[in-house]
Amino acid sequence: MKKPPVYAIASVDHALRLAAILQLEGSLSVTDAAERLGVARSTAHRLLAMLVYRDFAEQDENKRYRAGPVLELASHSQSSASRLRQAALPHLRELVDVLGESVNLTVRTGATARFIASAECREALRVGSREGMVFPAQQTTAGLLLLAELTDEELDAVYAGASVVPAMEELRRELAKVRRNGFALNQGRSERGVVAVGVPVRSSGGAAIAGMSVSMPSVRYDRRRLRPTVAALTSAAAALEADLAQR
């Protein structure tokens, strides 16, 4: 369970989010950075300049910023993650309008799940953006969906070198339930007071490549709305899959 620090520092949070964006998605301009963070261009420029100074970023001849030496380890994944995020955002925003809650798109890397796109609802009490955050896969809705695609042998291999290994038999039972249902329900698993529901997003070949989920404060979760929520998620995931197939 991740909790924001008591004395959160906005500038540090902004810089870390920018570093995650550069590592996962590739280059961006000062204007792009300002829009993603919701800050002024001057603020975005200062943040990027500090990342350059510490080798987390570097500037190219077109004055765009890209991952620097410190972040280059994951550069091979930038293009696919960036395309997936760009294709998903319109569908996530439409889903917010339909469900009235915040929605996310998440991918799995080994035993971790990374949120690559978020769209927040406009409720005063809401689940905030998780974009760029990384959680243990078994603690997240999308992580459960993607782990459920694995065989027992593949699941064992994922956790063979993990720093924290969950109770595997309990996890297998949970994943079997996800496979039977075709969706995942997460009640306080990753964060107390938050309920999330998700469905897989599949490639044209049928492999699950991401999880699309809606997150809400538990006080607004109504079990009677579970099926309509799953139906809305499934429809949005299908629309995204069609877009990806065309691209």
UniProtKB/TrEMBL annotation:
Keywords linked to the UniProt accession: DNA-binding, Transcription, Transcription regulation
SUPFAM superfamilies assigned: GAF domain-like (SSF55781), Winged helix' DNA-binding domain (SSF46785)
UniProt cross-references to SMART domains, sorted A to Z: HTH_ICLR (SM00346)
Keyword Glycoprotein: no
Domain HTH iclR-type intervals: 9-69
Superkingdom per UniProt: Bacteria
Entry-linked InterPro entries: GAF-like_dom_sf (IPR029016), HTH_MetabolicPath_Reg (IPR050707), Tscrpt_reg_IclR_C (IPR014757), Tscrpt_reg_IclR_N (IPR005471), WH-like_DNA-bd_sf (IPR036388), WH_DNA-bd_sf (IPR036390)
Keyword Protein biosynthesis set for record: no
Pfam families in UniProt: HTH_IclR (PF09339), IclR_C (PF01614)
PROSITE patterns given in the database record: HTH_ICLR, ICLR_ED
GO-annotated biological processes: negative regulation of DNA-templated transcription
All copies of domain IclR-ED, residue ranges: 69-246
A GO molecular-function descriptor: DNA binding
Official protein name in the record: IclR family transcriptional regulator
Species whose genome carries this gene: Saccharopolyspora rhizosphaerae
